[in-house]
Amino acid sequence: MNKVSVANNPISAGGQGESIRRLDRPRGRLPGLAVALSLTLALGCAVNASAQTVKIGMISTYSGPDAAFGERMNRGVNLYMKLHQASLPPGVKVELITRDDGGPNADRARALAQELIVRDKVQFLTGVVWTPNAMAMAPVVTEAKVPFMIMNAGASVITTRSPYIARVSYTMWQVTQPLGEWAAKKYRRAYIAVSDFSAGYDSEEAFERGFVSGGGQIVGKVRMPLVNPDFAPFMQKVKDVKPDVLYFFVPSGRLASGVLKAYADLGLPKEGIRLITSNDITTEEELTPEALGVVSSLHYTASGNRPANRAFVEAYKREYGEHFYPEFVAEQAWDTMDAIYAAIREQKGVIDADRTMEIVRNYRGDQSPRGPISIDPATRDIVHNIYLREIRRVDGRVSNVELETIGTAVKDAWKETHKSP
Prior knowledge:
Layout: E1 18-22, H1 33-42, H2 44-50, E2 53-60, H3 67-83, E3 93-100, H4 106-118, E4 124-127, H5 131-144, E5 148-150, E6 165-167, H6 172-184, E7 189-195, H7 198-213, E8 217-224, H8 232-241, E9 245-249, H9 254-265, E10 274-277, E11 295-298, H10 307-320, H11 328-346, H12 353-361, E12 364-365, E13 373-375, E14 382-394, E15 397-410, H13 414-417
Parallel strand pairs: 1-3, 2-3, 2-4, 4-5, 5-6, 7-8, 7-9, 9-10, 10-11
Antiparallel strand pairs: 11-14, 12-13, 13-14, 14-15
């Protein structure tokens, strides 16, 4: 593994002060959370008065068919910690404790969150790939008053479930509605296929709203199983309907690769049915020639020609190897750590949950690799640009290439369209 050279690098680095601990399995039955918290709080003043180590509990997917999510998320986190050690207040250290949820598993995620809070006494929770897992953790962080900084899970509703949740990743509405508006300028008839879970529902509704508002017609919709789906029957149905364009959403990685294979095997490209998506078809490391020409919308692309992004990609490749390119999960992890470190610096390492959330609500990241970002103080959700990308072959490599910005400083429209009367 190559080591990052930080000399003359736009990404600051230096100093010492972090340790990383990996504990994948929950240990035994937890005591009642309220009782355990009362014991913890009884010692709170003494702990905070001398606290020089800030503990961050990170729950992600490190095992099973979706383990790549956890690996890539950790790359972004570890690289950030390595290069920003010197930005911590003097004498303050950060300890990262990672736990494995094994995939979409709400009960396990809830138990892991409780354990990290009660036994490990973390002052932040972060990570979380899956919306159901994040939703299950919301009551725990509310009761414990522990800030929960989401690195991926994209269903809009999550941040409404606790005042101690903020999201530095994205929402499906942010990346999908602008794509629907763009597609309506090029196509008349669209078919929608999404995974059957909350992020898929958001994606479906947002694309339809954007496409129909632009004068397009939805000619069919289907929700596909999230676990072990056979995409062929769904693609055959799309082929029978013959829309101008197929919009789909599935979580990136192996599921996205399965969609591409079924799309090609059943001959939809020959029928003139274009394929577009609001999320990564596959990660940068897994793109294949079958994906060439597919258009997508997202808030980050490794090819983005921004100074902060060029520095991030350079550092990432130095650390993990020339053939590794950061994708959106790693970049989201990087930005989330930047928001957490901002809260640590502002409080000089003595963390108060309510003060932390106040700082996070006013967070701005002008040097993010994805472009200018901020947190909407009203919703605690990310505000960022959305880019249109196309998968092309560049210098012999299949890659996502940014074409244009289709949304600037985009907030989560779901919060407006689903306001309580």
